[in-house]
């Protein structure tokens, strides 16, 4: 497949980028060297300059090293957005450790499964979450608990660390190409949760690529980015946190998105960059007081995690004068692989062009090899420096996903005559609600434990705000009756809130193939017909 997309690149966008032998720790030190007094992080009335951020990173790195953290050890994160999250991220990398990012809304079952799979030896957790997992030391591989935010000055509270530890630390030497920086758990290309191994080079490369393609209006040391994206998500990690360190600019952190508070911050701090998801832009557009704020300082918005409706883009751009682009990525690619150009043609419904140093092709779903012509849908394959090393302790899954250096995404897409790519369907079973991936199998496993359930299948159905929401179809065992509310209640405490089913339908039977496999796609089609009618 010819790289037709290069003909659609704006003139000042490079086709390839040079990826130096650096890590994000090196990038932080460069920012400190060149802009030590520049504000790096702002959270409410708390803030850190780049020099202060480095000092905090060194203090925590010293403390963790004393408690036994060695190169290659995994450290779990269970935190919301905060100064401590960024400090912890860079401290673990400076120690040569590997970060295991967890959603802070996870239940005990979800967290313990992930931590044990990663064999993490330490966890950094918000104090208000710690009480939910009193037996974590007994039931997981965790040996040391660090409390990110704590009023009590205890041995492993970051507050004590910042009061007492030395400011000098020598980072552990790293092999950027081989050493794993982050284990990002995802459903991968098969729907089974697994740890994506992202090397230091993967992460650094994706920041460089993102800047080359989308940083057209960005100026080093001068940007003010408002981050409402969760930093535990690979999207927020790259396009907000790491990108701002790379730009030696300021990131304003919000722990929980609220459209009114967001508008006030956009106005007050004259924010210039505002990455988000379609649901975030919808909420801002529809805030009844949106016109009372001056948000014209924004020049760049990157929208990811779900397709961006044209009317949402147009309305937001009319309010701000900013450029907002629809982008595409996946955890296995750190995550950005495609975007519409910020200073070029932005095609409605398209995920855009491959970013610099990214190769793509569309191949036959039947054989996974035959390259298809333009406009013909097939599986999207990607190659580039941002593509993962593989899946943690899953050689067979890694072999299936990575063949001859090409990442098989499992997404069905096509390319048009200008080199723009369009997703036809997402990974076969993944539900994308509010930008989060939800895997039906996990929901089904929980509901199968209900004593009256014989069969269950979960699907995503359209939702005006979240993009999709979860609906489950249930068949009761003979002689049993089940109420819809009973199923939803049964899931509480076993699944994070964003995974909970919002609709339940009780059926006598489910559609199946001749060999007894439930026809999930048929149920999806039935729901889509309801919407179209």
Automatic annotation (TrEMBL):
<dbReference type="GO" id="GO:0016874">
    <property type="term" value="F:ligase activity"/>
</dbReference>
<dbReference type="InterPro" id="IPR000873">
    <property type="entry name" value="AMP-dep_synth/lig_dom"/>
</dbReference>
<dbReference type="InterPro" id="IPR025110">
    <property type="entry name" value="AMP-bd_C"/>
</dbReference>
<dbReference type="InterPro" id="IPR050237">
    <property type="entry name" value="ATP-dep_AMP-bd_enzyme"/>
</dbReference>
<keyword id="KW-0436">Ligase</keyword>
<dbReference type="InterPro" id="IPR042099">
    <property type="entry name" value="ANL_N_sf"/>
</dbReference>
<feature type="domain" description="AMP-dependent synthetase/ligase">
    <location>
        <begin position="30"/>
        <end position="392"/>
    </location>
</feature>
<dbReference type="InterPro" id="IPR020845">
    <property type="entry name" value="AMP-binding_CS"/>
</dbReference>
<dbReference type="Pfam" id="PF00501">
    <property type="entry name" value="AMP-binding"/>
</dbReference>
<feature type="domain" description="AMP-binding enzyme C-terminal">
    <location>
        <begin position="442"/>
        <end position="517"/>
    </location>
</feature>
<dbReference type="InterPro" id="IPR045851">
    <property type="entry name" value="AMP-bd_C_sf"/>
</dbReference>
<dbReference type="Pfam" id="PF13193">
    <property type="entry name" value="AMP-binding_C"/>
</dbReference>
<protein>
    <submittedName>
        <fullName>Long-chain fatty acid--CoA ligase</fullName>
    </submittedName>
</protein>
């Amino acid at each position: 497949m010819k790289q037709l997309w290069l003909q659609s690149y704006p003139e000042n966008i490079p086709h390839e980028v040079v990826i130096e032998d650096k890590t994000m720790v090196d990038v932080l030190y460069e920012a400190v060297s060149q802009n030590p007094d520049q504000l790096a992080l702002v959270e409410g009335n708390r803030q850190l300059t780049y020099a202060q951020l480095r000092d905090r990173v060194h203090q925590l790195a010293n403390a963790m090293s004393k408690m036994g953290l060695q190169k290659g050890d995994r450290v779990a994160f269970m935190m919301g957005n905060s100064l401590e999250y960024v400090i912890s991220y860079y401290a673990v990398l400076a120690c040569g450790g590997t970060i295991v990012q967890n959603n802070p809304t996870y239940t005990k079952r979800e967290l313990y499964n992930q931590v044990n799979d990663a064999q993490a030896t330490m966890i950094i957790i918000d104090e208000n979450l710690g009480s939910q997992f009193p037996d974590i030391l007994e039931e997981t591989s965790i040996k040391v608990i660090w409390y990110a935010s704590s009023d009590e000055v205890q041995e492993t509270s970051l507050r004590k660390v910042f009061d007492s530890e030395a400011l000098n630390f020598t980072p552990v030497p790293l092999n950027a190409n081989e050493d794993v920086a982050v284990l990002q758990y995802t459903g991968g290309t098969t729907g089974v949760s697994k740890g994506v191994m992202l090397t230091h080079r993967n992460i650094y490369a994706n920041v460089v690529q993102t800047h080359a393609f989308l940083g057209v209006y960005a100026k080093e040391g001068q940007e003010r980015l408002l981050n409402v994206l969760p930093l535990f998500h690979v999207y927020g990690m790259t396009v907000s946190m790491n990108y701002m360190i790379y730009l030696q600019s300021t990131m304003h952190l919000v722990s929980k998105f609220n459209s009114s508070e967001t508008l006030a911050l956009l106005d007050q701090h004259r924010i210039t960059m505002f990455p988000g998801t379609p649901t975030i832009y919808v909420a801002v557009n529809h805030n009844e007081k949106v016109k009372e704020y001056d948000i014209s300082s924004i020049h760049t918005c990157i929208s990811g995690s779900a397709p961006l409706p044209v009317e949402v883009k147009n309305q937001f751009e009319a309010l701000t004068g900013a450029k907002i682009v629809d982008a595409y990525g996946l955890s296995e690619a750190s995550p950005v692989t495609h975007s519409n150009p910020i200073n070029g043609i932005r095609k409605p419904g398209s995920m855009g062009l491959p970013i610099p140093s990214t190769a793509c092709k569309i191949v036959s779903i039947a054989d996974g090899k035959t390259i298809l012509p333009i406009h013909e849908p097939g599986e999207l394959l990607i190659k580039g420096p941002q593509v993962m090393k593989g899946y943690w302790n899953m050689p067979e899954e890694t072999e299936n996903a990575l063949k001859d250096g090409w990442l098989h995404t499992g997404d069905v897409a096509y390319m048009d005559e200008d080199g723009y790519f369009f997703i036809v369907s997402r990974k076969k079973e993944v539900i994308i609600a509010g930008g989060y991936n939800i895997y039906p199998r996990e929901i089904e496993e929980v509901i199968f434990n209900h004593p009256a359930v014989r069969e269950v299948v979960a699907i995503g159905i359209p939702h005006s705000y979240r993009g999709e929401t979860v609906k489950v179809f249930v068949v009761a065992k003979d002689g049993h009756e089940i109420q819809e509310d009973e199923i939803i209640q049964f899931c509480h405490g076993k699944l994070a809130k964003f995974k909970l089913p919002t609709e339940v339908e009780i059926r006598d039977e489910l559609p199946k193939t001749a060999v007894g496999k439930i026809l999930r796609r048929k149920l999806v089609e039935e729901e889509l017909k309801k919407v179209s009618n």
